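agent: user wants the full assembly modeled, not chains individually. Plan: 1) parse entity lines 2) check alphabet per entity 3) run joint structure prediction 4) return tokens. Steps 1-2 passed, two entities, 861 residues total. Proceeding.
--- entities ---
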Amino acid sequence: MQKLSFIVPLVFLVGLESGCRRRPQVVVYTSVDQVYSEPVFKYCASREKLDVRPVFDTEETKSTGITNRLIAEAAHPQADVFWSNDPVRPFLLLRRGLVAAYRSPAAERIPARFRAQDGAWTGLAARARVLLVNTKRLAGRALPTSIRDLADPKWKGQAAMANPLFGTTTVHVAALFVALGDQAAKDLLNRIKANGVRLASSNGEVRRLVENGEVVFGLTDTDDAFEARKSGAPVRIVFPDQQGMGTLFMPTVVVAIKGGPHPKAARRLIDCLLSREVERQMAVRAAHIPLGSGVSAQGIRSAGEIKTMKVDYRAIAAKMEEIQPWLRKWAGM
Amino acid sequence: MAHSRLQAALATGLALTLVIALSALPFLAAGLDRLPAAAGTFAELFGQGRLWRLLGRTLLLAGAATALATVLGTALGTLFGRTSLPGRHVLLLVHTLPAILPPFLVALGWFHVLGRQGLLGSAATSRWLFSPFGLVSIWATSFAPVVTWLALLGLRGVPRAQEEAARTVARPRRVFLGVSLPLASPWILAGALLVFALCLSDLGVPMFLRQRTYTAAVFTRLGGIHFAPGEALAMTLPLFGMALVLLAAERLAMAGRNPASLELAESSSPLFQRNAPTLAVGCLATALAAGLGLTPIFGLAWRAGLKGLAEAWQTGRHSLLTSLWTAGLAASLLLPPGIVLGREAARDRWTGRLADGLALLAFLAPSAVLGVGIVTLWNRPATQFLYAGPTVLVLGLAARYAFVPIRTTAALFGRSSPSLEEAAAAFGAGYFSRLGRILVPMHARGLVAVWLLTLLFGLRDLDTVVLFYPPGWESATIRIFTLEANGPLETVAGLALLHTCLCMVVLALFGLLLGRRRTQEPPSEAEP
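--- prediction returned ---
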């Protein structure tokens, strides 16, 4: 037993990373849901013969947690690539000079409005902000069709949205500020709050609330909405404001990190992430809408079929930071 | 003699330096880097009352959970420790299970039992679970075993002669309430304080149950759109204050005794006569306690099924191995200084008290600040070889759980008389000889148990490492936490179950090492 007490800990030293990997390493931080991004990284690792090392974000701090880690590590970057689940947070990195421009040949098939001309950022595989409606709870009433329905008294206490301090809800709220103007957007949000809209911790929770019939409808992303539909729940997906300002589209975005330890491998990973196959996988697995040409998936509408909100993602990024103090008060944080 | 004193000073100095470097430096790094920003925002953050109300709410929730856990734990500690109920040793281990698991895994298990689509779930049970009552209940049932064990040890530490003297004039119930319980109360109070600290610092359960707590707000503040760790640090200042208050309260509760030297007592004679009603009530209570421990695990197993387990093993075994060996390395790193400083604490020296206090503060302080401190401290060119790889996980776990080996080793060494070492010293044995040839061999089995206990704490950790885990080296708890929101339920439950099994194996080894043959004591002659 005495010998065991010294041998057992030593066994663990054998488990130390030996550094014997032969494939070039590349580190990617991502806020794309792990269940979707992990298979993509495995595909790219296999295709490009890379050792892909991912870091995933948690649901509760979606996207901003990982972005802030990138900023915290700015002095000595650990990541090579950042794959953001929204198009806005990469601008936080751009503004701080943490991004290295890379014009990938694979980006040529992505429409110009979804990428930077200098290759600083490139969008792919988008989500849309939709209303997920529980048709049983709806009980024959007219479908909600607009964001403004969250503030409609006839839906008092019957709707949900995720915390606007994180994730894609922040992007959406900032987009509303840009599209409607500050005062109109604040009025709308205050009316939404007064209308008893339930504030969930994440889009996933909004989906659960709608699936379970705890609310009639909720504001969430297309991937969560499609998961609800796939699960057999009595739900319907509505692309809001098709007669008005349009539905907000949020591409996922890839950027190369300046000063990352493995720049060559980073470029190969980016080329893979922007490929048709990855967009196809994201469409099939995660119901993300392909942006580039030559990709289609059953049940997924193409970007051209939906009226999208006309937005400037850079302006949304700036607005997002500006409205934070007001949003924190609004959310009670 | 001088040579021995020099050895002792060197060993103690090195051990203390290591503990300070591991536990205190990250907080210092975070503080020095962010304190100006924190000071600037403190008035703005706390001037409006929102955060104070949130802190008050959190203290209330933690207090309620602590009260419930204390009542449960004291009753169960009595039943497990001072009765002769059949099967109590096994039931005690089963009851202990939730305490050795990451709390949010316990919550996940209960979700699969009481959630809307759970085994016994409905809309009503789901609403209850995702409410403050659910949070308090999960915390109480997860952490009650801490009080159970300390109550058990405290009650066993009651001098037998005092109880027997009291029994000549009073009934067993009065002896228990008037003599045994008051004498055991310092340990029970220490357990309650520890439970309160665990509730206050927990991140996983409030986030999973969508309950707003102060610690979760600090964590999400670090994830907010502004990268403002200064604000997060400002928000943690009240928690630091709470940690100091808890430490002071614990010292007071010990009433001058060395808190690091919980003496494992020898009195285990039954307090109550074994008759049919007592047996029935006792068996029911201990079975219920064990049932509460097993139910969430059963929930995970039910949800996972064989398919989920297979999928979890295929996709998550690397994370299980990462959890195991990083926690193992952290335990190995902490054991040698734990031996040196535990001995100091057992001998009631100031170096031992200082190390115990610092290490306990590091445990009680907010994990979010530790995370920022680890990044600030270790993400430098000279230390990239530490930060960029899995070693940073080892450092983070060691920073957080240094108090475990110090305190438990002190309790272990406190059982042996210093006279053995003094006798050896009289014959010229130096410090290292006495340590290596007397103390360590004498307590070898106990030291392995200490190592296993430290390993368990590392295995159950989520809050510490979630902010800085290195690429490709996610632990099982992180993987479960990140997958829980959108991953397949069966796979997530399967991984949680595999992690639970790993912790159970370690607990079983710990139980085997602690178990010892006892001669059966004659039943008490007390009147019913």
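agent: reporting back. Residues 37 and 284 of chain B are 56 Å apart (CA to CA). Chain B is about 75% helix and 0% strand.
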